[in-house]
Amino acid sequence: MDFKASTTGLLLLMVAFAGCGGSAEETAGQSTPASSESTTKLEPSPDENVAGLEQMCAEAQPAMEARQATATLFQRVGGRDGLQAVVADTVRRYVENEQIKHLMEGVDTEHLAAQVTDFLVVGTGGEGEYHGRDMTTAHANMNLTNADFLAAGSDLGAAMDSARWGEDEKQELLCAFVALREQVVTR
Questions:
Q1: Predicted TM-score (pTM) of this structure
Q2: Which CATH architecture fits 10-19+46-184?
């Protein structure tokens, strides 16, 4: 997949993969007791969570390529309509997400959803064009952290779950976004 372009809120979509990263509180590194008789075990830090996702994606690359050779992600998720439903749900979740909702202030969410849908149609093997900004430019002034990236990923994961996407399809979109993380996380 070629995910070189972006729009202002796409970072949030990228982060969206974090459905695998857990809740914002979990990814922020809060501790939870391992048991009542043992010492407290710290949750992985956002940096550790991201490193784990990067490793998982690298290991899954051959399987993802094999699936793509059979049918594109675009085809397997219901084309533009399937992508558009997940994008709209994800954007709605961003507006409500305590950790990242400040990034959505003043954003035309309908325009954002349309831009992100176009981006994903092209990036997942559909026909169309994307005319938005590149990832680095679109996210340059957001000062995003790995914790923000994971929080947004959690929202995307929830939207894909709600749409009943298969595990393979969720993994492929997640890994496409993980590959773009260095272009959007600046803190």
A1: 0.75
A2: Orthogonal Bundle (1.10)
